[in-house]
Write a structure and sequence with these properties.
By secondary structure, this protein is of the alpha+beta class. Helices cover 35% and strands 22% of the residues. The strands form two sheets. It has a five-stranded mixed β-barrel with strand order 1-2-3-5-4. Helix 2 runs antiparallel to helix 3, helix 3 (111-125) runs antiparallel to helix 4 (131-145) and helix 6 packs across helix 7. The longest helix has 19 residues, at 217-235.
Length: 271
């Protein structure tokens, strides 16, 4: 009896080589993460090798056996060549994949998370948006979509919609006035007015224009430091792919990346 087959679109978040020519994939689909066994994916005659690469966006035909999903067929939709041909972009994109795998649940609607990742890769490889900008916006929006959104619409302590000397308390997951956060047990990351506006845009802005804001370099660094520290503090873990990416910039500052593209301007505005 032929196995029942299902067809899903998704992106490969992780590909682990096993046995002589097999791969075990973690695929992000609109319905959540999915572990998939790709038999003989690395053999020379395999027709699914391309779509089993890390960050391959493809249409996968799956069959189930003994509780496992097996890859029967695959058709590549996008390989993001603009990302793959640049070691910096590829390493940053690999971090995006590792972070997404860490927070995306299985068997839970994940269409927005999938779109977020696909748009981030497009912003890096095709639109050539500044790496630091895409990284910070991706981190913040991903955390928000997966249940870790910080409270940022006003000072969480005094209610001021425009906090005085604003900061992100990465331990408490709130934006507050510097004065309100003093004496607490939190860890405050300072935010300029521009960085705060960009943080709010990253959390609440229109998804299709998420990576299109403009921000001055000092503000962008504050945003990047706050976003990265928030991720590490909230998830209580580091990421090897991020360490590798930042290792490509031994002379860089805390943000560990260069800002390619235009990041001029002192305010945060979409468009």
């Amino acid at each position: 009896m032929a196995r029942e087959r299902t067809v899903v679109k998704g992106i490969v978040l992780r590909a682990v080589d096993t046995k002589e020519s097999d791969r075990i994939l973690t695929i992000l689909t609109p319905h959540g993460k999915l572990p998939v066994v790709a038999k003989r994916a690395r053999s020379r005659k395999s027709r699914v090798t391309a779509c089993t690469q890390l960050l391959a966006y493809a249409e996968f035909t799956l069959s189930e056996s003994h509780g496992w999903q097996y890859l029967a067929e695959g058709s590549t939709l996008e390989l993001f060549d603009g990302v793959r041909q640049d070691i910096e972009l590829l390493s940053l994109a690999s971090y995006f994949a590792e972070l997404t795998e860490a927070v995306a649940p299985e068997n839970v609607e994940s269409g927005e998370v999938l779109s977020l990742l696909l748009n981030a890769l497009y912003a890096l490889g095709t639109l050539k948006r500044p790496q630091a900008q895409v990284k910070a916006a991706f981190e913040l929006r991903l955390m928000g979509l997966t249940g870790f959104e910080p409270l940022a619409d006003a000072c969480a302590c005094c209610g001021n919609p425009e906090p005085e000397e604003p900061a992100l308390d990465v331990r408490e997951g709130i934006v507050c006035c510097k004065r309100c956060g003093r004496g607490g047990r939190g860890l405050l990351m300072p935010l300029s007015a521009g960085a705060l506006a960009a943080l709010r845009w990253s959390l609440y802005g229109e998804a299709k224009r998420l990576y299109s804001f403009s921000l001055a370099e000092p503000d962008l660094k504050e945003l990047g430091d706050a976003a990265e520290t928030y991720v590490h503090t909230t998830l209580e873990r580091g990421f090897g792919t991020l360490d590798f990416y930042k290792g490509l910039f031994p002379s860089a500052g805390t943000d560990g990346m260069r800002s390619r593209g235009n990041a001029a301007g002192s305010d945060c505005r979409g468009g």
